[in-house]
């Protein structure tokens, strides 16, 4: 029997900027998400930063990861196109994500959390260890970690600076002030604008402030026993993170058994976006190992 010839123009891989907005009902509340990559794979679920919606995920990072695995990016409750009211605690967000994963029909996932998403991911790993196969924590820190409760005092002057200079505040919050950092900021912010149609709703000021309270509470709460977290863990950050001080990444690596640590040079809170190609390669190797 003759093997059929491959198509002359194979379908290009899916891109995050074109991924459909979807919703899953979680105990009566719709949660927004986007889903791309090979559907047969165990999914990698992505949790984003304070005030972030689906369009704040770096498309280069997600497209790179989705070349070899299924990637699902989600909005928190009360954020973007998800319904409900944003929780006032990281624990409440973790409960929502656990319920969302169950509603999507998955019994086990890989999990990647950036910044606030890393707080949520740690809480999930401790609450539901059997749910996770592997864990990636980026730009984040442990409960009670150094400087986390002072994120507002660090952030608001740079948000004002962004208004005065007509630049996105992430220019100053996520990247260093060096030439390399500024170039990385411009490239990252340009990528976030690539999606033209069906963009997510921006976070409301109320949701933004409720998430801030959750972050501040996380920074003040007692340390968690990360020594009982036996999920294989990869940790990454820049060497000059001013939002969640970089020393918190080293602390996570010291407290989580057998964790791997990547620190990017001349990089800030958004180090994984500045070094997105390298991060995709290292994260993919970690997930595939």
Q: What's the total helix number?
A: 10
Biggest pleated sheet:
8 strands, mixed
CATH homologous superfamily assignment: Alpha/Beta hydrolase fold, catalytic domain
Strand order of the largest sheet: 1-2-4-3-5-6-7-8
| Mean pLDDT over the residues | 94
The beta-strand count equals 8
> Judging from the principal axes of the Cα atoms, what is the shape?
globular
Oligomer: single chain
**Number of domains in the coordinates?**
1
Beta-strand proportion: 15-25%
What does this structure look like?
48% of the residues are buried. Helix 1 runs parallel beside helix 10. The N terminus is likely disordered. Helices cover 38% and strands 16% of the residues. The termini are far apart. The longest helix has 16 residues. The chain has ten helices and eight strands. Strands 1-2-4-3-5-6-7-8 form an eight-stranded mixed sheet, sandwiched between helices.
What descriptive keywords fit this protein?
single chain, 289 residues, alpha/beta, Rossmann fold, eight-stranded mixed β-sheet, globular, disordered N terminus
């Amino acid at each position: 029997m003759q093997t059929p010839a491959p198509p002359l123009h194979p379908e290009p891989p899916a891109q995050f900027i074109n991924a459909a907005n979807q919703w899953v009902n979680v105990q009566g509340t719709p949660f927004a998400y986007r889903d791309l990559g090979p559907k047969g794979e165990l999914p990698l679920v992505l949790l984003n930063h304070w005030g972030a919606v689906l369009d704040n995920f770096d498309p280069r990072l997600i497209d790179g990861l989705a070349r070899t695995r299924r990637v699902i990016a989600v909005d928190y409750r009360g954020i973007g196109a998800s319904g409900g009211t944003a929780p006032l605690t990281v624990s409440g967000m973790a409960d929502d994500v656990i319920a969302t994963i169950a509603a999507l029909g998955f019994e086990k996932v890989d999990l990647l959390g950036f910044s606030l998403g890393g707080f949520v991911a740690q809480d999930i790993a401790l609450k539901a260890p059997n749910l996770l196969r592997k864990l990636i924590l980026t730009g984040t820190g442990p409960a009670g970690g150094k400087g986390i409760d002072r994120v507002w005092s660090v952030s608001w002057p740079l948000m004002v600076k962004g208004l005065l200079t007509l630049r996105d505040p992430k220019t100053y919050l996520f990247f260093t002030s060096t030439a390399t950092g500024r170039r990385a900021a411009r490239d990252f912010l340009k990528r976030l604008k690539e999606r033209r149609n069906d963009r997510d709703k921006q976070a409301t000021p109320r949701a933004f402030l409720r998430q801030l309270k959750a972050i501040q509470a996380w920074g003040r709460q007692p340390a968690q026993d990360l020594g009982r977290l036996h999920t294989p863990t990869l940790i990454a950050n820049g060497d000059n993170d001013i939002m969640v001080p970089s020393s918190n990444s080293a602390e996570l690596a010291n407290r989580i058994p057998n964790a791997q640590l990547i620190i990017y040079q001349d990089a800030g809170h958004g180090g994984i976006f500045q070094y997105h190609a390298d991060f995709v390669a290292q994260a993919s190797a970690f997930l595939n190992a």
